[in-house]
Amino acid sequence: MSREFTHFDESGRARMVNVGEKKSTSRTAIARGAIYMNEETFTKIKNNEMSKGDVLGVAQVAGITGAKKAWDIIPMCHPLFLSGINISFKFCENNCKIEIESTVSIDSKTGVEMEALTAVSTAALTIYDMCKAVDKSMQIGEIRLVKKTGGLSGDVINE
């Protein structure tokens, strides 16, 4: 696998990589992140008691939308026709944390890592937005690529 920066031309100027000659393959990316909050906020989300409504339901839809729009907000991302997007949440009682996981899949000439990472980020930001009136101390973090499959560089696991 080449270690050169492919998003720069010979002059050092930014460019979008041409994937036209690449072969389409099945690709998947899994990303995770977390949002920490105070106990009151955590309990209200878990019991669906936030005044703005179903926080995780809205965050799930926002995460899906974020994945579909990654190309629109990240300059060098290609517009993609995604095959599948799943967003899931896990409540961690011991530290008032909600873990967010996205799985994005496609059959394409380019990967979906940025789409999976954008999905997690968007879901976390939506939780923050819907709960900020109750808790301004929330922290978003730990956003990372956990796994990717397919493509020229092969499978990567970052557990």
UniProtKB/TrEMBL annotation:
Keywords: Lyase, Molybdenum cofactor biosynthesis
Catalyzed reactions: (8S)-3',8-cyclo-7,8-dihydroguanosine 5'-triphosphate = cyclic pyranopterin phosphate + diphosphate
Superkingdom as given in the UniProt entry: Bacteria
Molybdopterin cofactor biosynthesis C (MoaC) domain location: 16-151
Entry-linked InterPro entries: MoaC, MoaC_bact/euk, MoaC_sf, MoCo_biosynth_MoaA/MoaC, Mopterin_CF_biosynth-C_dom
Keyword Lyase: yes
Biological or metabolic pathway of the protein: Cofactor biosynthesis; molybdopterin biosynthesis
GO molecular function, one term: cyclic pyranopterin monophosphate synthase activity
Chain's role: Catalyzes the conversion of (8S)-3',8-cyclo-7,8-dihydroguanosine 5'-triphosphate to cyclic pyranopterin monophosphate (cPMP).
Protein family per UniProt: Belongs to the MoaC family.
UniProt name for this protein: Cyclic pyranopterin monophosphate synthase
